[in-house]
Design brief:
Blueprint lengths: L1 H29 L2 H16 L9 H23 L18 E2 L18 H8 L3 H12 L4 H8 L3 H18 L7 H17 L2 H7 E10 L7 E4 L1 H12 L4 E7 L2 E8 L2 E11 L2 E8 L2 H6 L5
Parallel strand pairs: 2-7
Antiparallel strand pairs: 1-4, 2-3, 4-5, 5-6, 6-7
């Protein structure tokens, strides 16, 4: 009995050493923090019921298991069509933002976005087919060999390579390279926030790209909004700032962003895409249910 307990404890410890990596994989697959955690937990159940005597590479085995779990979830989601694609029929569905920079937030969430996978990229991943998303995430983000991904997808390695290549072209075409200097990005976000608070339309135009696109996900009860062009986005930012008594700089998926509060309650999480010192994309989560689940405190 003692040996069995010792073996179980050792297996649990080995799993915990892999948990943060598995959570990162699942988050990029699913775009949901809660669903990612559920996928990792399901992987633990599968591991605890498996014969691990011949298992040489636990991390690779678990990554494959999580990949299959996420693939099933993505396929189920697609068949139900409960989650609209970004900009489908005028509706906007944003992935869960991972907010850090506040002591009130769970610090382990920072592990999810250690390599700063921004909301804009996550939005594009939502447009891929389940198989494309799995192939791209596992290969391009986590260096899983195509032979291993082929096991997850039930395809040949050559077919899996083609899936990843097709997904890569779509991602690169939809997500132009943004600025990487966090100091510069923070300065731009601060300027945006100050101009919105001050109702300074001209100042907003100086930090917004003329072709800026703003997406707002208000959930099921509040209409989603998709706005294009600096003038329209600036007007909306000024109107929204009137309701937000408190806007704070945080990190959203590893990049400078803003959480707005009113009466201690979160109104929005804003994520910015910045290119050459101007905001080219603004993704705003205003869904009260999803904001409440983030545990943000004013």
């Amino acid at each position: 009995m003692g040996e069995e307990n010792s073996g179980a404890e050792l297996l649990a410890a080995r799993f915990e050493a892999e948990r943060s990596q598995l959570r990162s994989v699942a988050y990029r697959m699913l775009g949901s923090v809660a669903e990612a955690e559920d996928a990792v937990q399901e992987a633990w159940f599968k591991l605890s019921r498996s014969d691990t005597g011949e298992l040489r590479n636990l991390g690779a085995w678990l990554t494959t298991v999580v990949g299959r779990i996420c693939l099933d979830q993505l396929r189920s989601r697609a068949s139900r069509r409960e989650d609209p694609l970004p900009e489908q029929e005028g509706r906007v569905r944003l992935p869960d933002p991972v907010v850090s920079g506040s002591a009130a937030l769970d610090p382990v969430h920072g592990i999810l976005v250690a390599d700063s996978v921004g909301i804009a990229l996550m939005v594009v991943l939502e447009t891929l087919s389940p198989a494309e998303r799995v192939a791209f995430v596992l290969h391009d983000m986590f260096d899983v060999p195509f032979d291993g991904i082929a096991e997850v997808l039930g395809r040949t390695a050559a077919s899996t390579r083609q899936l990843a290549s097709r997904a890569r072209r779509r991602v690169q075409g939809a997500t132009p390279a943004g600025d990487t200097d966090d100091g510069l990005k923070r300065t731009v976000v601060e300027a945006f926030l100050a101009a919105a608070r001050g109702g300074d339309f001209d100042a907003l135009l100086t930090v917004l790209d003329p072709e800026v696109v703003a997406r707002s996900d208000g959930g099921t009860l509040v209409p989603s909004v998709l706005r294009r062009g600096a003038a329209e986005v600036a007007a909306q930012a000024i109107a929204f700032a009137r309701f937000a008594a408190d806007g704070r700089l945080v990190l959203v998926n590893g990049s400078p962003g803003v959480v707005s509060f009113a009466g201690g309650r979160p109104l929005s999480v804003m994520s910015f895409t910045i290119h050459r010192g101007r905001i080219t994309g603004l993704d705003v989560l205003t869904d009260p249910d999803r904001l409440a689940a983030l545990g943000l405190t004013g």
